[in-house]
Amino acid sequence: MLAIIGGTGLSQMEGLKSAGFKRIATPYSEKRISIELCQYAGQTIAFLPRHGKGHTIPPHKINYRANIWALSTIGVKRIVAINAVGGIHKETGPGNFALPDQIIDYTHSRAATFFEDDLEFVTHIDFTEPFSSTLRAELRIAFQTVNEGLGLNKRLFAKGVYGCTQGPRLETAAEVKRLKNDGCDIVGMTGMPEAALARELKLEYGMLALSVNWAAGIGESEILISEIESHVKAGMGIVTDVVKTLIERS
Ligand code: HPA
């Protein structure tokens, strides 16, 4: 089964028929994780808004382990993550999209592995390529289909390095300068440890990122939260169309 993990601005999948919620107990959370099952194009997919239904859980407080564990428990094998990001590369300005192929993790103090307690032996995973090339290719085709079909004229930066910062504050200009020097093209707060945990449970993981602002110091002015909100609002409809197209084609 395919799962969509919705980010900021995507706590519901418009146009997909809800088939109810599953509430999954996990070893990582006292509360059960609520996953919506949705039907579209003859398929059932799982939907999980990572910030919670009412968008109340900040990036550093998300229980990434419980979320990924719960998805795996109900039979999810593939995850498409939706992430709002700040643009660093010149082709990743607000309103445009990216399909990153690499990650640099700048987060700290997050529970970042399932391989921690009661181990029979120390376990490492290969993470050379953090994203599934199959899902990236499928997302690219789905995006192009929507972009051309609706004449949207949006850009897709079809590769790139996602820098994951701790948040919840946005970065300083100097921090973004460092990210740029490190090779980051976009910056967000929620890609890690989500992607690594998915790999630990052998789930395919791809990310469709929507740029909602220029990262700090890249644009001409300070970052306006109202600007972020308007790009989130405008972009998530397109994200939903891309996801639907991906489901139709798979
Ligand atoms: N930085 C980090 N995370 C973000 C940003 C940003 O500029 N915009 C949206 N998520």
From TrEMBL:
Superkingdom field: Bacteria
Residue intervals of the Nucleoside phosphorylase domain: 2-248
GO cellular component: cytosol
Molecular-function GO term, any one: S-methyl-5-thioadenosine phosphorylase activity
CDD domains on file: MTAP_SsMTAPII_like_MTIP
Pathway: Purine metabolism; purine nucleoside salvage
Entry binding sites for substrate: M189, N213, W214, A215
Listed EC numbers: 2.4.2.44
Residues flagged as site, Important for substrate specificity: E171, I225
Pfam annotation, one family: PNP_UDP_1
Family: Belongs to the PNP/MTAP phosphorylase family. MTAP subfamily.
Quaternary structure, from the entry: Homotrimer.
Role summary: Catalyzes the reversible phosphorylation of S-methyl-5'-thioinosine (MTI) to hypoxanthine and 5-methylthioribose-1-phosphate. Involved in the breakdown of S-methyl-5'-thioadenosine (MTA), a major by-product of polyamine biosynthesis. Catabolism of (MTA) occurs via deamination to MTI and phosphorolysis to hypoxanthine.
Note: Although this enzyme belongs to the family of MTA phosphorylases based on sequence homology, it has been shown that conserved amino acid substitutions in the substrate binding pocket convert the substrate specificity of this enzyme from 6-aminopurines to 6-oxopurines.
Full protein name: Probable S-methyl-5'-thioinosine phosphorylase
